[in-house]
Structure formats: C-alpha cells, structure tokens
Amino acid sequence: MQPTAPMKVSASPPAVGLERRERVAVIGAGTSGLAMVRRLREGGLAVDCLERERDLGGNWNIALRTSRVFESTHLISSKRLTEYLDHPMPDHWPEYPSHRLVLEYLRGYADRFGLEEAIEYGAGVRRVQPLDASRAASGWLVELESGERRRYGSLVIANGHNWDPSFPAWSGRAGAESPFTGIEMHSGEYKSPECLRGQRVLVVGGGNSGCDIAVEAAQHAAATRLSLRRGYHLLPKFYRGLPIDQVGENLLRLRLPIAARRALAGLVSYLMLGSRASVGLPKPDHKLFETHPVINSQLVYCLRHGDLEVRPDVERLTEEGVRYVDGSEEEFGVVLYATGYRLSFPFIDKSLLAWRDGRPQLYLNVFHPERDDLFVLGMIQPDSGQWGLVDRQARLVARCLLASRSDTPAARRFRQEKRGDDRVRRLRYVETARHLLEVEHFGYARRLDREWRRLARGLRAAPSAR
Prior knowledge:
It is built from 9 helices and 25 strands. It has 466 residues and is of the alpha/beta class. Strands 1, 2, 3, 4, 5, 6 and 23 form a 7-stranded mixed sheet that branches. It has a 5-stranded parallel sheet with strand order 8-19-9-10-15, covered by helices on one side. It has a 3-stranded antiparallel sheet with strand order 16-17-18, with no helix packed on it. β5 and β6 form a beta hairpin. The protein is globular. The N and C termini lie far apart (49 Å).
C-alpha cells in the first residue's frame, strides 16, 4: 500500500466564472506540464495547470495512482542528459538518480520558478472541444470532472503517454478468453518484488522496464523467465565509469557517421557484456539504433548465473502457464506484461488531433497542422533523456504563442511550415507500436533550438509583440 499524500490546495485559485480566454490551459503537472508552465510564465503568459491528482510529479510520484514507477526505479538515461535546460541536478547525486530523487528534483524545480501558484490540484479534465472548429485559434471549452466549464484561449496537452497499459491480444487482460488460473499484471502495476516472492514468474517484453523487472524478479522469485518476441541490442549503463549515453553524446558531437557509431557501440557492448548468443539472447533483426536499445548491465549477469532464462514469444495462455510459439509449454504463477502503453488522450476526440497511423500527426510531435491554439508536449520517445527536449518544446510553444499574438513574419512562416510535411526522424526505426514516437535526440534538439531562435529574432524585430 503506497503512502497517501494530503490533497494540496492551490495557492492561487482561479477567479469565479467561465471566461478565461486570456489564459493558457495546461493539462497535467508531471515533467512535461511543469516545463510548460515554467516557460509560459517566463514569457509573461497567464496559465492554469489542471492536475487531476493531489500532487505534482506524475509518473515519478510513486504515491499517486497514475504513477508507473516501482520501488527500485532509477532513470534509464543519465542525469546530465535528462535534466531541464537551466535546472541542473546536484553534482553529488548519482549518475542515475532514483525516483525519490527525481521527485525531489521536480519539487525543487517547481519551488525555484514558483510553479505551484499556477497549479490546480484535483482538477481532472473530463472533456475538451474547440469553441469554433472552423477557426484556427478560436479557443477551447474545457470541462472539468467536477462539471465546471471554462473557456481558454489555448490548450497544451501534457498528460504523458506512459499511463494506459497495453496488453498482448492473447492476454486475459486484453479481453481474450483465458484459461490461466494465475496472476496477470502489467509492469505499471508492479511496485516491489514482494508480490513475486516464491512464484514462478514470466516477464513478457524485452524493453528497459521488462529487463529491469526480470533482473529484480530473478533475485526474489522461485524461477524467472523472460519472453522475447525479437532480439534487441544491449548496452551497458557505464563504459569506463562514464554513463553510456554520455559516451554516445561525445560521438555525436564529433559528427561521426552512423555506421561508425554503430561499430563503436557494438564493440563496447561486446567488450563489456560478451556475446548475446552465449546467454540465449536472440540476434536482433535490425541494426543498432533502429530500435530503442536496452540499457542494462545486470541482465547478462543474471543470465550467466542461471537466475534468469530467455524464452521465445508466447502463443497463448494455458491453465497452468503459457504455450510458446515453438510449441513448448511452461508453468507459471505470475505473468507480468512489460508490453508498454497505448497512446491515449481520453478527453479529446482523435479527429481533433489529426490522428493517423496510430498517433497524432503533429509538426515536431507538438504543433497541430491547422490549429494555432493546440499543442501536445512530451509526445516523444527519445533515444536519450527526455526533459531537456520537453523543455525545448515548451520554450518553442511559448515563443510561438507570443509571436502569433503579434503576427510576425516569422510566426507566419512557422504557421505555414507546420502545415507541410514533417520529417522529425533522421534514423529509420523498426515499425512497431513501441517506436511510433521515437526521435533521435541530438538532431531533434538542434531543430527545436533553430525554430526557437528564428521566432525569437522575429519578436526582437517587433518589440510591440511583448
């Protein structure tokens, strides 16, 4: 049972009434929402941050019902490549901080920039719809779960995309008729290994969460197996004491071609972890960096000690366990799905987000191609840390709103560009649901910075915009 934090009271409740079109509504006070509030306030824009839960932090606040971290969760990217642009994590903190330190960091960020003044807790959003669907900037009607309805000038969706669990089609949790008599659970429901102690456990899914949980289960369960649909590239968390993503960052700064970076990363993986085949890990059917690599130094350790074994993909559940695609069967008491999350915005109609091919088709994964008053923040899956990128997104959104109010030439150019073809990706990624939002962080950051500078120059040329 997780500790319950007291419900916070907003420091500055909104004025009574529906009309708030001079303000921006930001949905969510997690890592994306906080960055957005900070950048809007920095630009002198009025903002209401609408948070359903009783506290900030979103996914990183384990006390909240929407949190998907577990007791031993740490950052998968190093602190220097994760932190916000102008709010560094302390030097004395570990390279991969725990979720407790992350929440402390987010509270410090909110305190430093006075963000609590703009956050309304217990303000869940039930539905949003444009005031005039035919106009590109007509504003939004926001209906809260309390029944209150408000009109806002602009809307930023920042509720995250790692909260709505996805299950395999053959799972009883996905609605399939299942004879399985054991426990089915999602990695988002997993909090500690106590629920696995003494059980035979199958972890389904080879992403970072799946591998982390499999390693932890191997130390507590009676037996642990890891079911993999395909092979993934595996990298250690450190190389010669340096976080592996910082090693990669150095190679990117040297402008090494992708072939050279793949060769060097593959060599590091072999030197630090050895051969995949020797521990039963299947060979990847794609090149390194065409999927999100697994960053884990303990997986091979557990495999080499025999505490964990790899299994093929699952065909279906049986009464006592599972049947694999190779025809073999095995008994389990717990099947734990580390199968990711569905991209879900339940309070807005998909048609309003230009939804196509499984995701909203937004310019830079942020800007609606037609509407100038709708933005989505944090809808990316980068190959490195995320918050610095989200901070760049937020900075660009705030600058775009300021530029649009004065209708600068730069704003008109940006408005035209976001209606065209958007090529965010510089690398080819495997076509799976897991990689719908994948971006190459280095080039993506440079592009966000470039657009921000262009809009900034346009505003300086029109001082009356501020």
